[in-house]
Amino acid sequence: MELEGDLRRAVADDCAEMRVHYQPIVELADGKVAGLEALVRWQHPRRGLVQPTVFIPAAESTGLIVPLGRWVLREACAQAARWQAARHAADPLAPPLTITVNLSARQLQDPSLADDVRAALDDAGLPPHALVLEITESVIIAEPSAALATLAAVKALGVRLAIDDFGTGYSSLGYLQQFPVDVLKIDKAFVDGVTRGGPRAALTRTIVALGDSLALHCVAEGIEDELQRRHLQALGCGYGQGFLFARPLPADEIEAMICDGV
Ligand code: G
Ligand code: G
Ligand code: MN
Ligand code: NA
Which among 63, 98, 151, 248 could disulfide-bond with 23, CB atoms 3.0 to 4.6 Å apart, if both were Cys? Predict the structure, then answer.
């Protein structure tokens, strides 16, 4: 496949064509930026800016996601450390920023993941608690024992873990007591349903209550309008992410929001 060959070349070229965009995660109460999710893009010489839904599957099936994911991690940690310094200079009392990076199943099977994470943090000068690694429920379910061992090693560094697309992946909640999870990211499907009443809204309310009772942070994904924001805040969801606040943007367009809010 042509895309696959191009991807192999791009990763071998130190990911020089890759870009990281960032989407703010805000406090629903006041719109202040609490953190950012790193989302990779590919500035392809002929195709233009290629979205991850196009090339992440090929990166996963070829194993290229391991070096690509390592590059995203290093890039995002370095950027977060620079933003953290800028924010602290502007307001020494501002809460620390978090940076969230997505992990694929293949990366959890890589025995050097914890070492890579430690090196990325050390080289960036970023404290471990500022990093959140995001995995989907399906990643845990696919390979529970390997995932558990790797995640325990990463957690031992002081890094936090988030479950992405929460509510869509798996029906048993048992893994929440087995896995050292810190953050639930509520899938956009539940956010879309929250203003419509009925069963979907009841489920959203229950997910927020579950997060609350397990002392997990809740981030509602894909918030697109003010009514959704208000409903989620009323339910007690602390954080949100979505086009209402900002789209994923290049780093230089994020700078001002870090210090002033969206
Ligand atoms: O950026 P966008 O909103 O189009 O992201 C589409 C999908 O690509 C999301 O599901 C996201 O989790 C995934 N994705 C984006 N960046 C990365 C990355 O660096 N690593 C992995 N594994 N997935 C990513
Ligand atoms: O990792 P995850 O699958 O959660 O990736 C986030 C994806 O959701 C990215 O593709 C991002 O562009 C997308 N996204 C973020 N906010 C919104 C939103 O408000 N509406 C929609 N439709 N998509 C969003
Ligand atoms: Mn994600
Ligand atoms: Na998601």
Answer: 248
User: 54 CA to middle of ligand 1, Å?
Assistant: 10
Q: Establish whether residue 187 lines the binding site of ligand 2, counting it when its CB lies within 6 angstroms of any ligand atom.
A: no
Residue 224 in contact with ligand 2 by CB distance below 6 A:
yes
Closest residue by CA, ligand 1 atom 5: 52
Q: Which residues surround ligand 4, an ion (CB under 5 A)?
A: 164-165, 221
Residue 261 has what pLDDT?
66
Ion ligand 3 residue ranges (Cβ < 5 Å): 102, 134, 164
Predicted confidence (pLDDT) per residue in 104-147, tens digit: 999 998 989 999 999 999 999 999 999 999 998 888 777 778 78
Full DSSP string of the chain: -HHHHHHHHHHHTTTTTEEEEEEEEEETTT--EEEEEEEEEEEETTTEEE-HHHHHHHHHHHSTHHHHHHHHHHHHHHHHHHHHHHHHHH-TTSPPPEEEEE--HHHHT-TTHHHHHHHHHHHHT--GGGEEEEEEHHHHHHSHHHHHHHHHHHHHTT-EEEEEEETSS-S--THHHHS---EEEE-HHHHHHTTS-HHHHHHHHHHHHHHHHTT-EEEE----SHHHHHHHHHHT--EE-STTT---EEGGGTHHHHHH--
